Amino acid sequence: MDKRIASWCLFDFANSSYSAVIAATVFPVYYASVVVGNEEGLGDIWWGRAIALSMAIVALASPFLGGIADYAKIKKRMMMFFTFMCVISVGLFSLLHEGMIIFGFVLIVLANIGMECSFVFYNAFLPEISHKDHCGRVSAWGYGTGYLGSIISLFLALIFIQQGYIKPIWIMVSLFFAVFSIPVFIFLPEDDMDKKRIFSSALQGLKNTIKYLRIMWSHLNTRKFLIAYLIYEDGVNTVIVFSSIFAATTLKFKPDELIYMYLLVQATAMLGAFVMAKSIDIKGPKKIVQVTLCLWIFVTIFSFFVNSKGLFVVIASLAGLGLGSLQAATRAFFSFFIPKGEEAKYFGVYNFVGKSSAIIGPVIFGYISSLYKTQRPAILSVCLFFIIGLIIVSFVDEVKTRKIQE
Asked: How confident is the model at residue 344 (pLDDT cuts 50, 70, 90)?
């Protein structure tokens, strides 16, 4: 495998420690239940607010940053800056204790901004390091490698929990992310920085953002894709950030049980990403997106009725199987819309749409959960995002989309 592709995949391995431990399992429960207190759903509200605010900032900044990266040619530098912004913020989680709601809120927002903004530039390297006919499988390799990173970091977190330690987990995640990010900053193509444009890049980046938003919105297929992605990704993001809190609060999962469950989910997600990697290129990403959205609709409906930990683990595993395929296929699908040499700008818009979706879902989930004093009605609201997204994406013409790069 090309060392650039290998290092690109390894970055997903590195940041998945954050996704698995901080965003999805141990830390959400710790913040909602220990730092805030979640007896009346207050922890759900604060966690939803933190995620929504950070995603709103990322959504607004993503196309702007993408324009800056392309215009000033500092894509790699920007990726490094936001990566270590996340690393440092996560390390500071170790200072949190009961009642430090605002400090924790600020750190969550900063960590999430760092993580998600680094993805603007990470995604933008995909068309640059792989041929357009292989984008699907390379995208899937990245996600599959990321799930392996999730599994390893969760095992490490489990060791700490079994010994009665929680706070050292945040230090572990910070170091894991930092160390395994190093290869991507060594082997990915270097910036061809234009020093004369650094100071003017902010204004030009904003102009480019407006320009490319208009260009993309003017194409019917691109517009359909972006609307569908906005909606169904909202459901995905909401499930990811609240699944562990639902399991802990409603189904009474213990911390070690949460990790075992999520390990299984990551294993099935990794399996789904690798098994479907070639199918994305052969059958087309649109078909894979449709199939996996149908799976997610079933998962959310079934989750509303489940009362058994065992059944929830089974349904969560099915969700994981579709998660890797959906993410990889969506990213590959979007790459068809991008003319050569404009990757960062287009992926900035892609990130803008994806992260905009994460503003609404978490807020709605937290509000409904607090209003009804139970999280079950909030689950059904998520199902609607998948149904509407599926309907809209079905009208995207994949054949016309491929012609954009030709």
From this structure: low
